[in-house]
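[audit] Reproducing an earlier prediction to check determinism. Same input, same settings, fresh worker. If the tokens differ from the archived copy the diff job will pick it up downstream; this log only records the rerun itself.
[audit] input (282 residues):
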Amino acid sequence: MSLLSFGRSESPEEKTPDPQVEAFLQDYSIEVMPRTAEKIVDFRSLLPQHTRVYIAHIEGTPIEDMVATAKRIAGEGFAVIPHFPARIIKDEATLADWIARYQGEAGVDQALLLAGGVTTPHGDYNSSMELLQSGLFDKAGFGHLHVAGHPEGNKDIDPDGGDQNVMDALRWKQQFRDTTDAKMALATQFAFEAGPIIAWADAIKEAGIDIPIHIGIAGPAKLQTLIKFAIACGVGPSLKVLQKRAMDMTKLLLPYEPNEYPRYQLWGSVFKQNGRRPALRG
């Protein structure tokens, strides 16, 4: 008798879709890197038309590869949102060049601005706020400028584990949104429990921050790979959900899937009460 059964399983029972889950999944986005995008022959075979596609810019990735990926995916009919990590952008001339390339070669008019996972800045910029202050995105006519949200905090910004600096930054971005014509959204770090995101959404609402939220959820992946990237990205306490699962050797053979997220509580609880529907980003 084998330890694990690999036989054909019975057909799953057909279930009626949950309207709240369907609503939560509307207008979802995905995130790719140039090297992973190369493995996809045609995104149109996987995604609904006009899906938003974030393109992650990892340190060391040539801008030429980023722009080529943006051009290819935009050419297939998708709304492309490249990352602009402040700390790997050398100076204003480099930032202007990147914007011009994305706009001129790929027709991009949206961006995700973030500090980036680099400890020491490569040049003049240290934060997404400094990128916004440059005025270059407004000058180029970028209509949507997304920024990062951290439901479980960010020790790179608040080394003491608190949230003072993160909240100050959110208030600054709220004021920027309110005093400009920029259309903004908070693209959150991914987490593995609904609770921390619900609590964070309540907290920023009470602080007067009403920028729309795009919730980050990790897609299907090997458990070991997901833990590795979660640690690298600074995922907070909800990482324990994965680490607990990893203690079960049988589950190490199976991929983590986002449908294990606690029943999409995110829609039915705080967000519905707050009167704003979150978008989903994976």
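[audit] rerun output stored. Observation attached for the diff report: The chain has one domain: 20-281.
[audit] end
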